[in-house]
Amino acid sequence: xxxxxxxxxxxxxxxxxxxxxxxxxxxxxxxxxxxxxxxxxxxxxxxxxxxxxxxxxxxxxxxxxxxxxxxxxxxxxxxxxxxxxxxxxxxxxxxxxxxxxxxxxxxxxxxxxxxxxxxxxxxxxxxxxxxxxxxxxxxxxxxxxxxxxxxxxxxxxxxxxxxxxxxxxxxxxxxxxxxxxxxxxxxxxxxxxxxxxxxxxxxxxxxxxxxxxxxxxxxxxxxxxxxxxxxxxxxxxxxxxxxxxxxxxxxxxxxxxxxxxxxxxxxxxxxxxxxxxxxxxxxxxxxxxxxxxxxxxxxxxxxxxxxxxx
Length: 310
Prior knowledge:
By secondary structure, the protein is of the alpha/beta class. It is built from 9 helices and 15 strands. The chain is 28% helix and 27% strand.
């Protein structure tokens, strides 16, 4: 049985989206154009930096669009000339309705959570911060309200005790790429049934995943040990949970919780100056295993202590 050809416009920017674009191409789908963010100055010398998706698209000779304004009539006309059957969005900006409603098969999005849980900009971080042991990826149809469209497919992914936001990101990146291909195949063959998100709440409260700001990253040492440990995991490797050692700001990137009766007040640190550094909490200690002092690269605690003087 010959299935119809689907002309796709792919929209994405970071490395997370590259895995999906690569999977779509390898599955034999036609990607008529790639839409990604404009080049931005960055790095040493503030030279123009290309997005990871643009780098991949250039290497694979794909047609690239980089609209500064997604509401621009010129951009809309470019899309109409391409005339895609469907648009695929992975880690991109919020689209105006005139864009997401343009293709006859609509626009589908890949989201790094099991919707309707963790709608928002930082689903990976918040799932780990909240101590979840399971998350996943969801493909869904875009509509007005962010992350609320009808669900197409989902796949669960385990969060282990040793995972942080970075390792969960990588798991979801690969799971999402595979799920996206399966979704497109199902749409092409007409075998996918859309599901309203409201039917999946099962009476549970919906947890949200808003954008993370600096104030979300500061460690509050009067919180329980496990909660602090999960915050550190959920913000590692980026943006990083931070605190202060004397007057020096440090990001704690890896920790080990110890539940015991502490001998110091919450936030006080204990170290032998050589091998360990730990901070007291109300119900134990947070052992710092890896950190990033302000203005320095990340390092193991022993290496930091070797050059630190109280």
